[in-house]
Amino acid sequence: MSFSSSPSFQHTPYDGTSQPFTVGLKPIDEAIWLEPDPFFAVHLAEKERLYSLQPDSVFREEAGTEAAQAEVLALITDNLSRFHGATHQIASGSVGIPTAGREVSLTDKPALLTASRLVQEDLILMRPGDDGYRLVAASLCFPSSWSLAEKFGKSMSGIHEGVPGFNGSRMGQMVARLFDNLKVDQLVCRFNWSIHPDSDLHHPLPKDMRFDCPDQALASLFLRVERQTLRRLPESGDILFAIKIHHDPLAALKTQDDRADIAGGLHKQLLALDDDQLDYKGLGETRDALAGALEGFFTESAVP
């Protein structure tokens, strides 16, 4: 199912503030951990549709994660009560979400699934094991070209197999140290970006990036940004990933006051990707045409 984008270009990590295929973590405040936006109700409805139609593809849990899942639910309801009273009405045993026309019981199990029904973010639990941190529970409705069924139970190295520069490199080692050293009171954030041929939120399969000309690229493609936050749970010591998806149609660049900066940053990062990185992002055959389409937004001939 396709949707319109959230408020256009809310996050632009390709503008130089983040670099692809790097850790790129920055501290954030508790007040901005979760990001309800004007498409909150639409995203929650899509989650419910996926839970109903294909539950095994969007939710999995290992036995023994129940207490950690309850921690996640408690953290999220506490955050919503303190910072998001405009969208959530917290009661003793339920949360009302007027803009989505629903009420969520806090006693429903699994707790991680209940927590996911309250927010736009996907929620992923990582637990330390013999081979580093391992994916042990997840509500993953909006993956960016990866499958929960394929990655469930794997370690960080297994999850990132095929990611250029991760395993056997400084990046993988940095992530392992980060996980080991992350404190309970730390909240950190990073971004990924990719380009997709549609606005589908649920994207478990590799995307097919095909278009005939630069004009078609701008008319049909979507810039997808993942905002990933990490925090350690205080009791279990597990690490929680919360992943929020933002979709921006490239055609919307035409209406942005800062379109030259946005297009220029994306153009620069596209041209800096090596062959392995381009293949991983699915841009090996389309990068040059896409970069050419973006040039019109920041060259002297661009229409103001």
Topology (elements, then pairings):
Layout (H helix, E strand, L loop, with lengths): L25 E2 L12 H14 L1 H4 E3 L4 H18 L5 E2 L3 E4 L4 E4 L5 H6 L5 E8 L2 E8 L8 H4 L4 H4 L10 H12 L6 E9 L17 H7 L1 E11 L6 E11 L9 H14 L2 H6 L6 H9 L9
Antiparallel strand pairs: 1-8, 2-7, 3-4, 4-5, 6-7, 6-10, 8-9, 9-10
Helix pairs in contact: 8-11, 9-11
What does this structure look like?
- By secondary structure, the protein is of the alpha+beta class.
- It has one domain (22-211, 224-247).
- It is built from eleven helices and ten strands.
- The chain has helices spanning 40-53, 55-58, 66-83, 111-116, 148-151, 156-159, 170-181, 214-220, 259-272, 275-280, 287-295, and strands spanning 26-27, 59-61, 89-90, 94-97, 102-105, 122-129, 132-139, 188-196, 222-232, 239-249.
- A seven-stranded antiparallel β-sheet has the order 1-8-9-10-6-7-2. It has a three-stranded antiparallel β-sheet with strand order 3-4-5, covered by helices on one side.
- A hairpin with a 3-residue loop joins strand 3 (89-90) and strand 4.
- The longest helix is centred in the first third of the chain and has 18 residues, at 66-83.
- Mean pLDDT is 90; it is low at 1-6 and 300-304.
